[in-house]
Amino acid sequence: MRIFVHGVPDTPAMWAPLIEALGPSAGPVSAPALPGFVTPPPAGFSCTKEAYSNWLIQEVEAVGAPVDLVGHDWGALLVIRVACQRPELVRSWAVANALPQKDYKWHRTAKIFQTPLLGEAFMALTSEARLASGLAKAGLPATLARKEASHWTPHMRKAILKLYRSAKTVASEWSQGLDKLPERGMVFWGDDDPFVPVETAERFCAETGVPLHRNANTGHWSVVERAEEFATLLKTHWR
């Protein structure tokens, strides 16, 4: 089983171009929605980074380990975390445009999310149309950007704020224990990412020995912009 884990402010819809590029040879795939992103989170779910990493472990156990994990943005952080915590559950992993690298500093928007009142104001001022426009400018096809933005609901916004506020020190916390990371891994990156610079990927891959596949003239949503290239790499990676 291949499990695709999306990030912020996305939904499983973001994986459609990659899954299409992979075709039937990819075998069975699952692209679950992070709790709170498509539907309200379950009662008692805290929407913290620990809650989401535990959720992903449960998703893997439910479909039957070991699995191939693929993650983007926050999904990438969760994939790395779970692979380090429970390496026996992971046959292989591949991530794009986010990593728990100890020297990484949060980007401006993340710092806004992490600031009480300022984060709430940002959410209130960001309309569905504005989000769709921003996603399209960042590299998502306009139709996909509008579909993603249609989920910009109050429960998604609250989940995002809780997640980021739990994660102020995630770079230093989750970069510990990388020695337990399964060897069969791969990093895919858009060089023009405004949120996580390519230097973060270079440092992470130098420290772990994991191969880095860079894409020039590509931004944060490299997995969509370069879906065909990523699909080709994944097929080889899984074999």
Q: Please, could you describe this protein's structure?
A:
It is a single chain. With 239 residues, the chain is an alpha/beta fold. The protein has a single domain, classed as Alpha/Beta hydrolase fold, catalytic domain (Rossmann fold), CATH 3.40.50.1820. Helices cover 46% and strands 12% of the residues. It has helices spanning 16-22, 49-63, 74-85, 108-113, 118-125, 128-137, 142-149, 154-165, 170-174, 198-208, 222-225, 227-238; strands spanning 2-5, 29-30, 67-72, 90-96, 185-190, 212-215. The protein has a 6-stranded parallel sheet with strand order 2-1-3-4-5-6, sandwiched between helices. α10 (198-208) links the parallel β5 and β6 (212-215). α1 (16-22) crosses α12. It is globular and about 45 Å long. 41% of the residues are buried.
By secondary-structure content and strand pairing, the structural class works out as alpha/beta
Distance between the termini: 13 Å
How many helices does DSSP assign?
12
At the fold tier of CATH, the topology name is Rossmann fold
Number of strands: 6
The CATH class designation is: Alpha Beta
Could you say what the CATH architecture is?
3-Layer(aba) Sandwich
* Biggest beta sheet summary: 6 strands, parallel
The whole-number mean of residue pLDDT values reads 95
Q: Any idea how many domains?
A: 1
Helix and strand pattern:
EHEHEHEHHHHHHEHEHH
Fraction of helical residues? 40-55%
Strands of the largest sheet, in order across it? 2-1-3-4-5-6
Based on CA atoms alone, the radius of gyration comes out at 16 Å
What is the 3D form? globular
Q: CATH superfamily assignment? A: Alpha/Beta hydrolase fold, catalytic domain
Low-confidence stretches: none
What percentage of the residues does DSSP assign to strands (E)? 5-15%
